[in-house]
Amino acid sequence: MTQYESALEERPTPQQRMRLSAISALVGGGLLMITGIALLSVLNEAEFAIVSPIGIVASILIALGLPALYASEHRWFGRLATAGFWTMTVGWVIATVALPIAEYGSGVAFIPTLLGWLVAFLGALVFGVAVLRSDAATTPRLGAWLLVAALPVGLPFAIAFTTYVMGEGADPWAGPFLLYGLAWVVFGRYLRSADWARTASAEVTSD
């Protein structure tokens, strides 16, 4: 019994779990920005082999950051925010699982990876619009604007930049990665705030 109680005491509290999730969001967003910037430089095969694992780690960390964003904002969710958030979540998780398989296993896995990114960025756009429309949202509006811009601005920007500036068309997802990663840096910095984490912890405990 004593050993069991000791194990329970060593388990992280809800507040600690949310803090870890927020840190994952912040670090993952930074790594995804680095990935996007690197891809914009039009990598050769050797350089891509270095950048690819960074993108995989970034994707995993952002997936781990999703619970903190949900815990912070779900109280005001309506139908639009709910649809956007869960579409973004499902798409990102699918891409996160499929990406390492595509890179180091079967190339067929690139199909669900690409579809996952597309779904995630469409969901991010919808969720960003919901945040901007809501007076109850507490996350920074800059992050919401970046979510909205990730696909419709980031995709054509990456194509135009790599084609006309770098002189060679490259990965068009570089632009969305850059803006989406920056959004998660903005969210992650906010989500590390003690105030909302304490509130979320109290709600979980009372439940």
Describe this structure in words.
Keywords: Membrane, Transmembrane, Transmembrane helix. By secondary structure, the chain is an all-alpha fold. It has one domain. Helices cover 81% and strands 0% of the residues. The longest helix has 29 residues, at 45-73. The radius of gyration is 18 Å and the shape is globular.
Average pLDDT value?
88
End-to-end separation: 25 Å
Q: Give the helix level as a range of percent.
A: over 70%
Taking all Cα atoms into account, the compactness measure Rg is 18 Å
The 3D shape can be described as globular
Order of helices and strands: HHHHHHHHH
**What ranges have pLDDT less than 50 throughout 5 or more consecutive residues?**
none
Percentage beta strand: under 5%
Structure summary, number of beta strands = 0
Largest sheet: none
Structural class: mainly alpha
Number of helices: 9
> How many domains, as an integer?
1
Topology (elements, then pairings):
Layout: H1 2-10, H2 14-40, H3 45-73, H4 79-104, H5 110-133, H6 141-150, H7 154-165, H8 174-191, H9 194-206
Helix pairs in contact: 2-3, 2-8, 2-9, 3-4, 3-8, 4-5, 5-6, 6-8, 7-8
